User: Fold this.
Amino acid sequence: MSFVGIGYDVHRLIEGRKLILGGIEIPHERGLEGHSDADVLSHAIADALLGAVGEKDIGHHFPNTDPLIKGIDSQEILRRVQAILTARQMAIVNIDCSLIAEAPKVSPHLQAMKRRLSETLQIPSQRIGVKATTNEGLGFIGRGEGIAAMAVASLQHIESRFPAESAGRLV
Assistant:
């Protein structure tokens, strides 16, 4: 049995912050505003993974009112989400995501993002799709005021994924 979740995140670009996307620091004069490192790509992925198992969103699990997680690395958020999946005996089949930004140009960094996300989530990079597009100059993203990301995640129950291993066991 497969489970699918979708995720979306958006953050405003501001002066004085590093720009982190997919766990990679991207050279840019502005970064994303947020309680964590504001990595919109990792946040969209986290929401997609949580949604696939019927969990509440990352705002519930990692509230921006919690001073203990101020500035948290979004790769740590993904590791904690992965722990939730593991506890539910769920395995990631694949992830597909898109970044929407006018600037900076992120396509030169897509492979590095895939590698970093692969390391964090402990799945092969071939099962992670990361794409980038612009908003064609339209809206707040088109004006360069922010960056958004969308993600879809497919999960499978570990027992379903490896039926030979569960044969003969009562479930």
